[in-house]
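Predict both folds.
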Amino acid sequence: MSDKIEKLEHKLSSLQEAIEAVQDEIAETQTEYPEWIKEGYQTLGNGSTWWSPDVRNNYEYYKAGRIFKTEEEAETFSRNEQKLHEVLQRIKVWNAGWVPDWSSNKPAKWTYLFDSVPRLQVCYLTRAVPDSHYFKSKDIGQQLIKEFSDDMKPLVTHGSNV
């Protein structure tokens, strides 16, 4: 009896996977693409960009915001993404495993802002960006600004080309 139950559970699991795959396919075909999206440039996380004659066949790239009208837009996105990665890796190394404690206002947590120039801001109980964008000391923030001033723009402007 238990062998038959196992077989039925396996069939049920397979059917559920098939249903989910069909639902994903339906969602992809019902996606409203902007008018201009027929052909365009796509990007990968490794900095590469390429032209595609039919970008509509790659729903995952569209969902991830990796389809662009022009090669310049795609390359700017890729450059900013690489800069962001470098800045976040440096923060990770300098924080040496530190994680902000949001249940207390001590110790202070630091992050940066970018108005017309980059500057530091102390944060206590307000969490505005992911934890990986905070650092445990003002010194780390000052060093980041010294080394990565321009490269930090995409991080604080959400990847836009400021």
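Second protein follows, with its predicted structure tokens after the sequence.
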Amino acid sequence: MAATVTYEYPVTIPGGTTIAGGTTGPTSGWGGNAVTATLAMLDTDTTATFVHGFGLSIAELNALFPMVVVYQQATNGSAVGLSFTSQSFNSFTITKASLTSSGGTWVIQAYRPYSPNK
């Protein structure tokens, strides 16, 4: 089984597409400011892609957006750190070492740059 990202928020995106409970993230330019999901990885899983669909600019990527909050919800025995790499305009890659008892479930939250004028 491969790593599974299950999107929880937003429940629906403009146009009425439901993403909550599914494994397909929001499409590019959907206009929201936050995406949350659970990430389930087995011991042998090493990568997963988180799609936020923010359509970030190069300036926003250079300013280190999106902001990502992560915490481990459940573990198979060991607390394991995750790495976040390969950021793009609409997604980023999550990497974990393939170790015994390294699997588990994490909550991932991504936030786009926001101001009242944006």
